[in-house]
Amino acid sequence: MIETSARLVDHVIPDVPVRQWVLSFPWPLRLLFASRPDALSRCLAVVTRAIETDLIQRAGLTRASRARTGVVTLIQRFGSALNLNVHLHMIILDGVYTMEHNQPRFHRVNAPDRQNLDKLLNRIIARVMRRLIRDGLLIQDHEQPWLHF
Fold first, then answer.
1. 103-148 pLDDT, tens per residue?
2. Cα separation, 66 vs 69, whole angstroms
3. For the chain, where are the alpha helices, taking DSSP H only?
4. Which of 72, 68, 71 is nearest to 104 (CA)?
């Protein structure tokens, strides 16, 4: 993982600040994602869009500006003890690009503070849960959602 990240930063990603994000899931979702990679792909799209939107807003822009960031995600399926542990290692630009006068312009953002991270995490959780409910993989319960296999 370290070698892959170093190669990406040194040879693939533009010379702008990046941040590594690691997202893990509760056990029932790890089992679901291990057996349904298509569900993980759809949830990854939700996670990526939520983080990109957060970066756009922290850069003082809106989605209407057509700002975009760069994301490389490595899906790791096992932990160091070869136990099932589906989680995401994401390398994300620490800012967004816009096009100005046909030239890309990078808008750097500062590191997110704790309050921003908590807000973003809650948004990601809510959106992933809605996606899984919409896909029929979770059943909404008034107490809490449960997996539906």
1. 999 999 999 999 999 999 999 999 999 999 999 998 877 666 555 5
2. 10
3. 2-7, 27-35, 37-58, 114-134
4. 68
